[in-house]
Write a structure and sequence with these properties.
CATH class: Alpha Beta
Strand content: 15-25%
Structural class: alpha+beta
CATH architecture: Alpha-Beta Barrel
Order of helices and strands: HHHHEEEH
Length: 156
């Protein structure tokens, strides 16, 4: 689960990344969502495929790593406006009658990521078993909604 490209980094590199996000040097955060099937991940490290899922944990991982260093507003901007700016896409706004694509999340909830929390068919994540702060609750897109297992359970 830990074989990714670029590789996971040591504490000094992680701190430099935190500072870069905080000071605006890094103004865009995206997930390198690279699912792999279990047969390509549960082998010796040298033979394992590179990749991990990231869409469902990227916000929680960044929120946990940057807690107390960056406002929630700036963190959301790094995920939403930053990538659009890099790609030259217009910023989207929520308006009555317009198509919408939004992610619902609770930035304060603390949870431990489990394979059962992952909606993706692939479960290869180095963050399974890790405590995180900030939980995605679901996605709404063009009137369709996909809710997290935790939120589905709460709503019945």
């Amino acid at each position: 689960m830990y074989k990714v490209l670029p590789p996971l980094r040591d504490p000094e590199h992680i701190e430099a990344l935190r500072e870069g996000v905080k000071d605006g040097t890094i103004d865009s955060i995206v997930s390198d969502h690279r699912p792999e099937d279990v047969e390509h991940k549960r082998v010796e490290f040298a033979q394992a495929a590179f990749g991990a899922i990231g869409l469902e944990t990227s916000f929680a991982v960044a929120n946990t790593a940057l807690k107390g260093r960056l406002s929630l507003r700036r963190l959301v901007e790094r995920f939403s406006h930053g990538p659009r700016k890099v790609l030259g896409l217009p910023v989207q706004h929520i308006a009555e009658g317009s198509p919408v694509e939004i992610t619902l999340f609770d930035p304060e909830v603390q949870w431990v990521c489990t394979a059962e929390d992952i909606i993706s068919r692939s479960k290869n994540s180095p963050f399974i078993g890790q405590p995180l702060t900030g939980c995605p609750l679901g996605v709404v897109r063009d009137g369709q909604r996909v809710l997290s297992p935790a939120l589905q359970e709460q709503l019945g």
